[in-house]
Amino acid sequence: MKVAVATDGNMVSQHFGHCRSYTIAEVEDGSVITRTLIDNPGHEPGFLPVFLAEKGVGCIIAGGMGGRAQGLFAEKGIIVITGASGLIDRVLEDFINDRLETGANICDH
Questions:
Q1: How far is 70 from 77, CA to CA, in rounded Å?
Q2: Which among 17, 36, 52, 85 has most CB atoms closer than 10 A?
């Protein structure tokens, strides 16, 4: 499965659409097989779910995401995890090991 993490530096971004980039990790058998950093191509309503789906992403992790975006990801069959925070490496490790703890979705618009 490919997992996209909204990224600002080495931290999870608080808003998936306004992040600087996405860390896309291919996860297989409990390990990150590949990891790629791609620039955010821009925040236009409805664009990012299509863009990330075309990259083969099956899950998106962010600090926050609006309801409309969550619905668009769901339409693409992409799992949405909000309320994540911290270092990208730690979040990916916790996700892989099914121990990712999340807080409230900080973006509810």
A1: 11
A2: 52
**Identity of residue 29:** D
- The DSSP annotation for 95-106 comes to HHTT-------S
Q: Give, for 31, the enclosing helix (H) or strand (E).
A: strand 31-39
**What pTM did the predictor assign?**
0.94
DSSP code at position 86: S
CA dist 60 and 91 (Å) reads 12
Sketch the domain layout of the chain as residue ranges: 14-21+44-100
CATH superfamily for domain 14-21+44-100: Dinitrogenase iron-molybdenum cofactor biosynthesis domain (3.30.420.130)
